[in-house]
Amino acid sequence: MNGKPKVVVIGAGVVGSLIARELTKYDCYVTLIDKEEDAGWGVTKANSAIVHGGYDDPVDSVRGRFAAKGNKMYTKLSEELGFDLKRIGSYVLAFEDDEIPHLGELMEKAKGNGVDGCEIHSKEEIIRRNPNINDSVKAGFWCPSAGITEPWMVAIAAVENAVLNGMDFRPGEQVVDIETGENETGKTVKIVKTNKDDYPCDFVINAAGLFADKIAQMADAYCPILHPRKGEYILLDKKLGPIVTNVLFPVPTKQSKGVLVLPTVDGGILLGPTAQDMDVDQKEDTSTSSEGLNEVRLKTSSMVKGLDFSQTVKIFAGLRPEDPQKDFVIGKTKVKGFINAAAMRSPGLTAAPAIAEYIVESVIIDEMDVALEKRSDFNPILAPYPVLPEDDPEVWEEMVQKDERYGKVVCVCNKITEAQIVEAISRGARTVDGVKFRTRASFGRCQGGFCLARIAEILARELDKPLNEIKYRTGNTKLLSGRVRT
Amino acid sequence: MEKRKITCISCPLGCEIEAEINGDEINIQGNRCPRGKEYVINEIKDPRRVVTSNVKVNGGQFPLASVKTTGAIPKGKIFALIEKLREVELEAPVNIGQVVYKNLFDTGFDVVVTRPVEKL
Amino acid sequence: MREIKLDALVIGGGAAGMAAAVELTRQGCETILIEREERTGGVLNQCIHNGFGLHVFKEELTGPEYADRYKHQISQNEITVHSEKFVLKVDPDKKEVITVGVEGVTCYKPKALVMTTGARERPFSNLRIPGTRPAGIYTAGVAQKFVNLQNYLPGKDAYVLGSGDIGLIMARRLTLEGMNVLGVAELMPHSGGLARNIAQCLDDFDIPLELSTSVVEVHGKERLESITLMNFTPDTMQPILGTEKVIKCDTLILSVGLLPQNELIEDYVKADPVNKGVMVDSHQRTTHPWIFAAGNNVAVYDLVDFVTLEGIEAGKAAAQMIKEGFKECKQIPVKRSNNVGAITPLFCCLDDNPFKFYIRPTKNMDKGRVKIGPDIIQKVELGLKPSEMVDIQITREHKEKIKEMGLEEIIVEIEEV
Question: Between B and C, how many residue pairs show a Cβ–Cβ distance under 8 A?
Fold first, then answer.
């Protein structure tokens, strides 16, 4: 290695983004590549958004080492990066007598994993906090440190902060090959090649989500075959009110943690996921199905009363990468410089901050004995995206006097203004989804009915493109076709 | 001999009328009043429609001005009208009632603007 | 922060709001009309087709022409319009309306509030149709705005779900403006729109209408590539296995329902679960005495003429309250019976003022007897269908009879003949 180490991180999901940001704390060149047009649009975009307590993972597993630790790191991270985090606590609920012993097992696991504050709660306590839970509930395992967040914002904010600290972000580029070389010790990474450019490197961090196995194959490095596991979700309207206060899990099965009921950070009600193992060639299939949606309806309705499905705001499905060992694959490989942060199944979102720290400090610096200098000028803080409180007109007045575009409301359902949309664009949004995910415009009950045209117009104006060049997201997703009159 | 089913729209009943067309002779069945016969015969012999569409406007607050025909024109000429409208370019400001085409296809009807467009 | 004290505030500058504001001004009330877009007119600005104004103006006008008549009345009466103003909060206890605009926050303090906030379109995701979530799926109103106001087509080959008038109008519009419309699917066994529109929007262009059919799956990773249609049983609306049909298209246009919008006041007034809008009495007053409402946020109307008439009534009643104060009046609740769907008003005020019931039948009937009372009105109507509201006038004499009979509730039903 000559000069400062060059690190290429493949995959700008929550894991890759946090690793890349961690690297910018040190004196090295960092490049982050993602095939999507924005950060966090793969696995990160469509999951339960839970920062798990970390009690659940087997003490001797890889995920057990990172989950509880990651959970604890989220408070500081959310303060630095400005994303929403709500530690609303979680219950694992027993509805049958034979499910109760499992709760005791969870208490033991929690102790082993260093998760504090867990208790077994009685039916009365549970119903006091969540009056809509089915009356047949018997007891629940309570974990106060569990929380909810906006997973794509973790990635978006981490990337934005890393860029401010000198990282090179390359969205919309697909890695097509990794050139390796030979030296005395064996194979070593040399160049990461994308469909647009070549990146000479000393280290490759494989955080490529569903495609981490494919990336590893390019470098002849080990990664188990990953198959996608699909989870379908239903999101209900926040006008139903706080149907539940905490994250609610049923007692899990061998297959999965079960179908959950939980609030979202902006007050909606999220139901899901299912857990359907798919084939390795189905890694792009995020379609929902009537069977999956029915399963979500039935299982959540038996746990919680008052779920009004006519108030569905959105249905969606996400994929997570599952490996045969059902565990993370983290660490160096026989190919020098090629490091895996792969098989990020649940609790990947939770563990991500701890994994980022581990990859840099333990793997690169300690294990691989690389001398990385810590920078004195790293700035961990990212200004949060402005949010105007619904019920505080004084704040609105203040903001409008600063910038009159705060007085132009574009998203009617969520009261998002032109100023916020313009800021999102200046901070990296290039598509309708880019604006949506940064501002929550179009997330509301009309699903863009009132605001889509205006959001597209603002994008067209700010990016200096004709309206019919504006896209929703990556690929063939333009909003419009040709002109009516030319 | 041609058979056609036409829904009369003269009143809310909407009688479904069956017409047997033998050259110039038309036999009607299914109408509950004489207006049905009249409507169906017109529909078969000389169907007409009022057409609404858009024309291009330059320099205005909207890129288009909506337009309409001031009367019902022969149905067969609808797409020919659209083709003519594609060639139109108005300059803002544009007013309601402004004539875009006079005496369209010799029908005695005009194409007029229905939405004003202010100058930018 | 600005404060504006005034007689009447009208929120929403569409058909109902413009009519209410004009009437209030005619009655001598100091009125401001608030609109969140740059211009008034609401959805009329993009409804460039014919069919508006037959009742109110005795002429057939296009949407923009109809809106223009009211915009003209607004400027003639010198009515103040505050456009590009967004309402953050309505506070009925303090009688305040907080808005934001480019000059900042304004607090309006009206003596009467008229809510004319219209309806929104039911979005695709609310239908819970499984499949992918590709580009190319639009509600009809959004597609209409892109085509008629912004000069862009949404795609090339379209399919329309929903045979209500909006879907039929868009099937014709997209065809005229250069797209290929492959068909219209309707879940119910009968069409949702006017017979005239089936003839002029579908038959004229050989666009097939498939009844008892709906979209059951959507395909396409990035852009819509195809939809799967399926037949449903006509009475119970259950899917019939084996009737799946795949249609290749890149655009799906949805006309699957309008939902009255009352987010600003729904915590303070009662809504009706069938109308889905706020309940009003025969003076367009909601269950909160300070708040009046008219238009599509009360119930979804099929003719803008009716919306205008309701807006005028709201304006009249609000003006009376402003000038004479709130007057208690006995209100008789209205109850639905056989074959009556949406109906407004839901309370009949026992004063001397006539009003109209607007009633939507729940099914097709060649002949039906509309019965109000019992024994107040019995009227035979022909050609009843869910897509066409029936309007029934209640006169002063009818109200006298209601008083005489001491009715505690008014039952409305449509008996099939």
Answer: 72
Which chain C residue is nearest to residue A289, measuring alpha carbons? C130
10 Å Cβ neighbour count for C276?
19
Count of Cβ atoms closer than 10 Å to residue C9 Cβ: 28
Q: Which residues in chain A (447-486) have CB-CB distances under 8 A to chain B?
A: 484-486
* Interhelix angle C63-76/C15-26, nearest 10 degrees: 30
pLDDT tens by residue, C222-255:
999 999 999 999 989 999 999 999 999 999 999 9
Question: Is B23 domain-assigned?
Answer: yes
- What does each C-alpha distance from A421 to A149, A452, A455, A462, A474 come to in angstroms? 21, 12, 8, 10, 19
Classified by CATH at the fold level, domain C123-256 comes out as FAD/NAD(P)-binding domain (3.50.50)
| This prediction's pTM | 0.95
Return all residues near A28 (Cβ < 8 A) that are at least 6 apart.
Answer: A4, A5, A6, A7, A372
CA A283 to chain CA centroid, nearest Å: 17
Neighbours of chain C (3+ CB pairs under 8 A): A, B
Distance CA A479, CA A387 (A): 27
Residue A475 lies in a domain: no
Domain residue limits at A406: 393-469
Q: What does residue C398 show for φ and ψ, rounded to 5 degrees? A: -60, -40
Residue-wise pLDDT tens digits, A92-130: 999 999 999 999 999 999 999 999 999 999 999 999 999
Q: How far apart are CA A401 and CA A398, in angstroms?
A: 5
Whole-angstrom distance, CA of residue A323 vs CA of residue A212: 11
CATH code for C1-121+259-327?
3.50.50.60
